[in-house]
Amino acid sequence: MTDFNTALDLYLRGDREGALRLWRMLADQGDVRAQYNLGVIYDQGEGVAADKPLAAAYYRAAAAQGFADAALNLALMLDGGDGVERDPQQAAHWFWVAAEAGNPQAQFQLGLKYDTGEGLPRDADQAARWYYRAAEAGEAHAASNLGRCFAMGEGVTRSDVDAFKWFAIAAELGAANAARYRERVARELGAEDRLRAGEAAERWLREFRARQS
C-alpha cells in the first residue's frame, strides 16, 4: 500500500520524480502530510521549479483540514503577497487557524493583526491575549510586544513591573531592542520593584527552559 513514508523513502534515495508522483496522488486523495509537503517543495523550489501559486494551493488544502504549519505558511504568503495576491483579511483567517492549533508564530502574528488593525479590527485586548499566549510559548517578539502592552496599558492593566519582566524575557529570548526597552522601564521603578520584576523574569526563564529540556 502506498503511503507518505513510501514516497519519503523514494525522495531520500534520490528518486524525486517517483516521490512527487506518489505525493501528488496522496494529496489528491486528501492526505494532509502530502499536501503540506508538496506545498513546501513548490514554495522553496526543492528539486523542482518554484511555483508559488501551486504551493499556496497545496497549503490551502492542508490548512483546510486544520494542519497548523500549512495554515501558517499560507497566511505568511497571503500577508506578504509572496507569489499570490496580497490579502490581509485571508491572512488573518489562516493565522487564526494556526494560532488556535497552538502555533506560537501564528499567535504572535494574530496578535500583531489585532494590534495594527490590518486584516482585523483593532482590538488591544485581543492583541495582548495573543501576545501572551505566544510569549508563554517562548516567542521572543511576542514577549517584547507584551512588554510594550504593559508599559502603555494597552489591553492590560498598566504595570511597569510586568513590562520590565516581559522585556527582560524577550531580551533573553533574542528580541532586538528588548534590553533597551527593559532599561527604559527600569528607570521608572524603585529598587524593590526592579528586584521583584527581575526575579519574576528569571523564574519564568528557568521554568521555560526546564520545559524545553
From TrEMBL:
Pfam family, one: Sel1
Source organism (scientific name): Acidihalobacter aeolianus
SUPFAM superfamilies named in the record: HCP-like
Protein name: Sel1 repeat family protein
Superkingdom of origin organism: Bacteria
